[in-house]
Amino acid sequence: MTTLQQSVDLTRSNTLRLPCHVDWYAAPQTLSGLQAVMHEAANRRWPVTLLGGGSNVLLPPQLHGIAIRPSFQHWWLESCGNDVVAYVGAGVNWHSLVMRLAERGLWGLENLALIPGNCGAAPIQNIGAYGVELKDVLLGVQVVGLKSGNLRWMDRVSCQFGYRDSIFKHQLADKVVITQLALRLSRQPAPRLHYGDLASRVPASPNPLAVANAVCTIRQEKLPDPQQLANAGSFFKNPLVSNAQAARLLQTYPDMPHFPQPEGLTKLAAGWLIDQCGLKGGREGAFGVHERQALVIVHFGGGDRRELLQFAGRIIQVVLDRFNIELEPEPRLIQA
Ligand SMILES: Cc1cc2nc3c(=O)[nH]c(=O)nc-3n(C[C@H](O)[C@H](O)[C@H](O)COP(=O)(O)OP(=O)(O)OC[C@H]3O[C@@H](n4cnc5c(N)ncnc54)[C@H](O)[C@@H]3O)c2cc1C
What we know:
By secondary structure, this protein is an alpha+beta fold. The chain contains 6 helices and 20 strands. It has helices at about 30-45, 95-105, 210-220, 245-250, 270-275, 305-325; strands spanning about 5-10, 20-25, 50, 55-60, 60-70, 75-80, 85-90, 130, 130-135, 140-145, 150-155, 175-185, 230-235, 240, 260, 265-270, 285, 285-290, 295-300, 330-335. Bound molecules: flavin-adenine dinucleotide.
């Protein structure tokens, strides 16, 4: 049976260390446990907030209702010719899964090493890094309807994945709990090393573990460890602008990083835009822009969500004034 805990402090359960108390909290480890908690929440008319590792959320000081953290730890592998399908419970830590599969010589997840959080949240924003996105390896997800309690599988197409986006941020936002992922991995060598300087960091014929370790090293050089300095990774999404707007900007800033996308769009680097505005390393009160990575807002302690949003708002305004581009925060704003 899953215990319901009353008045729980979630400050250390989110990587930005935003102070937050929730009325009720539960961490079911089985599907039936989850369904029982959902039933109880519905009976008591509690608003439900789903939580994983808390690495991509902006929590309010007081969260009403219940926070449910699906904590299913099961995973298993099934052979499928040269491929292997991994079935993974929502509560499995993403990075430890990546490393365990890489150690077994299975290709697919190695570029996504060291992304914090749990597997259940990975499809929400279609996590991505070093030229790979979750959608490249995901076969489907098992979900439970928050109201109905019904279980069903959704294939990759019905998840409507985009850049840091999926149906779980739109039509299905706060309507389903992701309980399990199915991921397709390969035994055949399939290194994807085209992104950044990854190729120069691995041996000539690397195995998945060598790639995963190289990704970890690069990330540790560039990103602050939330255990040492509170943060939520990239605070802003890289903006998509029209090709025409990108071309105009390139006339003034010929060195501006830009990445052509389908449908007449160009992706720009939000970190570069912030850096150009001279904001890297800047601090106001409890929050600052990280000194090595302008995309990351860090929390030095003592601040709350209101102050963070004010700080982020000022960054958005400065970038808007200079480039006429409105940056959009990446972490999810959780309703009080
Ligand atoms: C240092 C750092 C580096 C990062 N680097 C990257 C990166 O390279 N690429 C990248 O894409 N992201 C990155 N992130 C963001 C973050 O790690 C991912 O978005 C991750 O998938 C969030 O997982 P989580 O378990 O912490 O989710 P949480 O932050 O707990 O939740 C995120 C959202 O998912 C919902 N949710 C959680 N679990 C479930 C579930 N089981 N069912 C339905 N909804 C659920 C929550 O309600 C919330 O809306 C980084 C974050 C940090 C702190």
